[in-house]
Amino acid sequence: MKKEDIYNLPKYYDIAFSWDLSEEIYFLLDVFKKNVPFEVNNVLEPACGTGRYLIELPKYKNFSKIVGYDLNPEMVEYSNDKIKDKRLQEIASVAKDDMITAKFSEQFDLAINMINSIGYITKDEDILQHFRNTGECVKKDGLYIVQLNCAYSSFEKPMFVEWEMQSQGTKVKMKWTINSEDRKNKLSYQSSKMEVIDIDKDKKFKIEDEHVMRLWLFEDLKNLFQKSGLFKLISIYDKEFKEVNMTKEINGEMGNLYFVLKRI
User: In this prediction, what percent of the chain has a pLDDT beyond 90?
Assistant: First the structure.
């Protein structure tokens, strides 16, 4: 099995993460409606990857503009090709940029950051910079919805999830493992394994990748939101889209959570 960055293979990454987004998008639209006191017409997506949300959102609501950015040039090119294929060029676009330094002069009604993409920012000062830069381009009373998973209350051995997706003659099997958590340095050590069977191109291969990510502790998160000076945490939702009691312990056992931040 060879070592390679899975983000350099956008076609197969896109298939691996191609589950149905309809229920999640209905949930997001409901959160927009409940918490934004004006019509949501434009959206920013940091670390947008293959552009799945950018392309799916217009199927459920009319938007005037949807902008994404990603650090990986392969992802950017792939996303823009998909946008052209779906004839969404008039409203959607993806640029190359990173979450720490990206700035926009225009104002967005809201921003979304899904599947713990923000976890690739590991240092407090860089996370704060990201929140401040993003906050500056989100309108007052707009939202920033961030999906991430917190540290486990009890971590005794590696934990993993496996799944398989298929599209047009290509099958992709994934295994994603959380190998260890370093609470002292606030780091989560993770790995991924991808197995691809591409019948059209008569290819079969396996790759693995290592991921050093931020270990999110809820108290740290709240402090970072507050220190940004631009966002206030107003609610948290679980993977079943049910609101979470923020006065209770928030931990990794709860899975990926949606943190709803209000621009103040």
Answer: 95
